[in-house]
Design goal:
By secondary structure, the protein is mostly helical. It has two domains: 103 residues, DNA polymerase, domain 1 (Orthogonal Bundle); 169 residues, hpI Integrase, Chain A (Orthogonal Bundle), CATH 1.10.443.10. It is built from 15 helices and three strands. It is globular and about 65 Å long. The N and C termini lie far apart (78 Å).
Length: 340
């Protein structure tokens, strides 16, 4: 099968069952629009692959031009587990998707077929029920040390026009462990005394408690917000760009990289999400915050996700091993020989 350049189209006419599925995710399951968009894209690639794989369209047809609206219930009923295996092979060998990317696509497929079987009831058996997700090697999260975090905040240019805004953004990342999407969507009405209401993944709300550093940074930032020329629908947003619009994720990514670079820290491996890792690690390591509390602070649905931060225990284990009096056996041997 030839390689295809797959791009996101602005308008895709999806099969009726996919539209029903996305509506179900939005209205019944309460998934966020971003999550639903990701599911739709995954299913678009999956169904177009199958149309080529099953010989319904010739291989020379441009991948992005394949018309998915012709897919009906009979087509969906014809999909088998071996078809799913072929798709996973395609993703790995031709698309060169990582295990993480393939795992997400498996999740999309399994959720879709679970809907077709249990809700739409158009298939008697779920071909994806036995589809296994690729094994993902767990990696320790990358994070700034306590000293690096302090350096980052202290090295910022006080004379820069965006200093108070940027300082507040970094302070919230490092103290509250926010996701970038959560930070960019904050509105001033979500602030109340020492709490911040956050809308996280799946439109789930949680309350974040603000410490002294966050409150001070917010107070300074709010005093410097200039609302002249800002459209009424944007005036309630906490963080605005220089174009008088809500700050974008890309702008936040750029300013994080800029300030980390200016602090003399290697910026290549640090992103806003790594600052979220930093907040969680510092709370667990230096604040002795238990995993259950950390789960609530970060808005993790499952405790297993939070458990990645127990990696800092490795350092404690190393210190414990180094505390063993037998760590320097040569020294003890010399003393013993000296006594003789």
């Amino acid at each position: 099968m030839a390689k295809y350049s797959i791009q996101r189209e602005k308008e895709i006419k999806l099969p009726a069952r996919v539209n029903e599925f996305t509506a179900y995710l939005l209205t019944i399951k309460g998934k966020s629009p971003g999550t639903v968009t990701a599911y739709s894209y995954d299913l678009t690639v999956f169904l177009r692959f199958l149309m080529i794989y099953k010989g319904i369209v010739p291989e020379e047809v441009e991948f992005e031009e394949i018309d998915l609206s012709v897919i009906d219930d009979r087509f969906l009923q014809s999909i088998t587990l071996p078809n799913l295996y072929a798709y996973m092979s395609f993703l790995e060998k031709q698309r060169e998707n990582s295990a993480t990317a393939r795992a997400r696509k498996v999740a999309s497929i399994k959720t879709f077929f679970k809907f077709l079987h249990g809700k739409a009831r158009i298939i008697d058996q779920d071909p994806a029920s036995d589809l296994e997700s690729p094994r993902i090697r767990k990696r320790n999260p990358i994070y700034l040390s306590l000293d690096e975090s302090v350096l980052l905040l202290q090295s910022m240019d006080h004379a820069h026009r965006d200093y108070y805004r940027d300082y507040c953004i970094l302070t919230l990342f490092l103290n509250c462990g926010l996701r970038i999407s959560e930070l960019t969507s904050i509105q001033r009405s979500m602030l109340r005394e020492d709490t911040l209401r956050i809308v996280g993944k799946g439109n789930k709300e949680r309350t974040v408690y603000l410490n002294k550093a966050c409150l001070a940074a917010l107070d300074n930032h709010l005093k410097t917000i200039e609302l002249d020329g800002v459209l009424p629908e944007y005036k309630n947003y906490l963080f605005l760009s220089n174009h008088k619009r809500p700050i974008s994720k890309r702008t936040v990514e750029r300013l994080v990289k800029k300030h980390i670079t200016n602090a003399g820290i290697n910026a290549d491996q640090y992103t806003p999400h790594k600052l979220r890792h930093t907040a969680a690690t510092l709370m667990y390591k230096h604040g002795n915050v238990d995993l259950r509390s950390l789960q609530l602070i970060l808005g993790h649905e499952n405790l297993s996700t939070t458990q990645i931060y127990t990696h800092v225990d490795d350092e404690r284990l190393r210190d414990s091993a180094d505390a063993n009096p037998l760590r320097d056996i040569d020294r003890w041997s010399d003393l013993t020989r000296g006594k003789k």
